[in-house]
Amino acid sequence: MTEFWEASFVEHQTMWGYEPSDSAVLIKDFFLEKKVKDILIPGIGYGRNAKIFLDNGIQVTGIEISKTAIDLAKEAGLPIPIFHGSVAEMPFDNKRYDGIYCYALIHLLNRKEREKFIKDCCNQLKPGGYMVFTTISKDAPMYGKGKRLDKDYYEIMEGLKMFFYDAESIRQEFGHYGLFEITEMAEPNKHAPNKPSFPFLMLKCQKR
């Protein structure tokens, strides 16, 4: 997977622009309401979803598999620590965070990787902390396309494997981790507004 995402960043660079995703804007408000002070962002990329948290007084630590993306974040002046590595290698530190925000990453993992990732994220939360994930849903037009690898899990193009969630699979995977909200949302492609929005699901958990 490392080679795939490195190639993608080399080809597309800052392909999503620097404007934060709609879900990052919503979660910024949620974290402020809950008095979240520091967060971990696994799969932070080149940091487009980090600045909105920093601008509102929330400390950010990132994890990113692509060295190219980390270099782009540094070039953009993002003043945060970013661990270079796969989320499969979590944890990278012993810190416990008030919140975790993970955007459009978990559906790129297989079943065992997702199980470990969710558990690792929960383990890095303080008691009462929140973790929020956004993920592609089964309403996406590419659902069911390509080679079927497992239930709702497809290789939609060479090297790109995706798991497509619905409310049932979210409850199955996150139900033991304080899941309390599932929201459907259409995430616009702000860098290419003529392209259709992505059908996403956003879920929130609180560590009990």
What's the short story on this structure?
27% of the residues lie in helices and 31% in strands. The strands form 2 sheets. The protein has a 7-stranded mixed beta sheet with strand order 3-2-1-4-5-10-9, with helices on both faces. The chain has a 3-stranded antiparallel beta sheet with strand order 6-7-8, with no helix packed on it.
Describe it for me?
The chain is α/β, with parallel strands linked by helices and 208 residues long. The chain has helices at 2-12, 22-33, 51-54, 67-75, 111-123, 167-174, and strands at 38-42, 59-64, 82-84, 97-103, 125-136, 147-150, 153-157, 160-163, 179-187, 198-206. The strands form two sheets. A seven-stranded mixed sheet has the order 3-2-1-4-5-10-9, with helices on both faces. Strands 6-7-8 form a three-stranded antiparallel sheet, with no helix packed on it. It is globular, with a radius of gyration of 16 Å. Residues 1-14 have low confidence and may be disordered.
Total number of helical segments? Answer: 6
How far is the N terminus from the C terminus? Answer: 33 Å
What's the alpha carbon Rg, rounded to whole Å? 16 Å
Helix content: 25-40%
Secondary structure tally: strands: 10
Question: Largest sheet, order of strands side by side?
Answer: 3-2-1-4-5-10-9
Share of β-strand residues: 25-35%
Low-confidence stretches: 1-14
Q: What structural category characterises the helix and strand content?
A: alpha/beta
Q: What order do the SSEs take from the amino end to the carboxyl end, as H and E?
A: HHEHEHEEHEEEEHEE
Bulk shape = globular
- Give average pLDDT, whole number: 90
The largest pleated sheet is described as:
7 strands, mixed
